Fold this protein.
Amino acid sequence: MAEADTPADEEPPEEDTDAADLLAVADLVDEVRVLDERPRYHLSSCSWLAGRPALGLPVQEARQLQFTPCAVCRPDATLVSRHRVAQREVSDD
């Protein structure tokens, strides 16, 4: 579902994270953003968050608190991809 399809007061859908990415996310400490009384976590750049007061948490803590990833900004896929690129750069040095 595209962000334009989600009304401003409606929760965005949950990102469908594959099992390998889910295991990787469980160990990451990158910051994600959450809103009180809302079940999703987001990247700080998420368009759905615009103008909403959000709190920062490490993604592993957000997961432990049972927040789930937003399908609009796809934090799991983005963070895991960044992590894998950083690991390749380190191993290439």
